[in-house]
């Protein structure tokens, strides 16, 4: 530690502890003459401050999460790095999804030729399957930003689940009220119509500044929120979360740190949605398309 905080030397490391693990600790060095530049206090002592965060897996999923205070401290240093990790992933997937226009047109035609039941079956995947793949993709051993990335992916997942549940609750309550009023002979048609339209207005009001959702949650499944081909097109054409910052995000006395957390949570949520969409496209739709092409070629040559 230095007498002047901005001159203090900081180092963050990430390690898994094993019985025989010894390759951990602080590896940052300083030449001895520089210690005289504020590192030695008035009692001729050198102060070294160490902080340890034991990271445990979340009880609700495979994402290892941080304590709130430690997250804030890491965020001050690594906000830009984590931000770029999410952005880079989304840009790579965006470029990959429609890189071949001819192939894309053929897959769209194949998809439109499928029956609704097959499309619905392909448009969903178990949450635990996706979550394990997300951890495998984003968590890098001994990379200090990995726990921060995992933490925000968990926050993004919670945001996705809460919004899905909120929409279900609004619609369910409204239907129950309408059902009760239909039994009431004094209830007018206009009243019933207003109540039927109210949940749509409520949901539209809450999401008017957000992009159209790509994925929703149904019990233990991730489900595409619309037709797969439409969602793929939106994923390619729509701006990223940071490019559509709502006007009210900028305030006179805003909390910069809180604002950063909100932005990264939004990025993480969108990253999860793109991950699900890409997984379903590559591992279900594209494979089914290739199998159909192979079968057609076999029939033509037989």
Q: What's the topology here?
A:
Elements: E1 56-57, E2 64-65, H1 68-97, H2 101-112, H3 116-122, E3 124-126, H4 127-138, H5 146-182, H6 189-207, E4 215-218, E5 221-224, H7 228-237, H8 256-301
Antiparallel strand pairs: 1-2, 3-5, 4-5
Helix pairs in contact: 1-8, 5-6, 5-8, 7-8
Describe it.
- With 302 residues, the chain is mainly alpha-helical.
- The protein has two domains: 1-52, no CATH class; 55-301, no CATH class.
- It is 57% helix and 5% strand.
- A three-stranded antiparallel beta sheet has the order 3-5-4.
- A hairpin with a 2-residue loop joins strand 4 and strand 5.
- The longest helix has 46 residues, at 256-301.
Q: Largest beta sheet, briefly?
A: 3 strands, antiparallel
Strand content: under 5%
Order the strands across the largest sheet as they lie in space: 3-5-4
| Beta strands, count | 5
Mean pLDDT: 76
Summarize the structure.
Residues 1-50 form the MATH domain. This protein has 302 residues and is mostly helical.
List keywords for this structure.
single chain, 302 residues, mainly alpha, 2 domains, two-stranded antiparallel sheet, 5 strands, elongated, MATH/TRAF_dom
């Amino acid at each position: 530690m230095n007498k002047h905080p901005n001159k203090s030397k900081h180092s963050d490391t990430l390690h898994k502890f094993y019985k025989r693990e010894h390759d951990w600790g602080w590896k940052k060095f300083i030449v001895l003459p520089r210690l005289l530049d504020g590192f030695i206090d008035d009692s001729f002592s050198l102060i070294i401050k160490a902080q340890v965060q034991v990271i445990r897996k979340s009880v609700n999923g495979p994402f290892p999460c941080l304590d709130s205070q430690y997250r804030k401290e890491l965020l001050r240093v690594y906000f830009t790095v984590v931000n770029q990790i999410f952005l880079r992933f989304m840009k790579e997937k965006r470029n990959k999804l429609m890189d071949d226009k001819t192939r894309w047109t053929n897959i769209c035609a194949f998809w439109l030729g499928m029956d609704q039941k097959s499309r619905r079956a392909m448009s969903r995947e178990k949450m635990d399957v996706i979550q394990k793949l997300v951890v495998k993709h984003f968590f890098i051993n001994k990379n200090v930003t990995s726990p921060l990335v995992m933490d925000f992916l968990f926050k993004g997942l919670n945001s996705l689940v809460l919004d899905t549940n909120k929409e279900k609750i609004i619609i369910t309550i409204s239907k129950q009220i309408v059902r009760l009023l239909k039994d009431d002979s004094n209830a007018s048609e206009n009243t019933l119509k207003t109540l039927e339209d109210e949940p749509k207005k409520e949901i539209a009001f809450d999401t008017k500044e957000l992009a159209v959702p790509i994925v929703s949650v149904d019990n233990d499944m991730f489900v595409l929120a619309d037709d797969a081909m439409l969602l793929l097109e939106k994923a390619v054409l729509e701006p990223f979360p940071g490019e559509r910052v709502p006007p009210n995000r900028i305030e006179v006395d805003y909390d910069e740190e809180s604002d950063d957390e909100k932005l990264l949570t939004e990025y993480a949520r969108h990253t999860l949605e793109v991950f699900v969409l890409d997984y379903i496209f590559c591992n279900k739709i594209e494979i089914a398309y290739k199998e159909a092409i192979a079968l057609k070629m076999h029939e033509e040559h037989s």
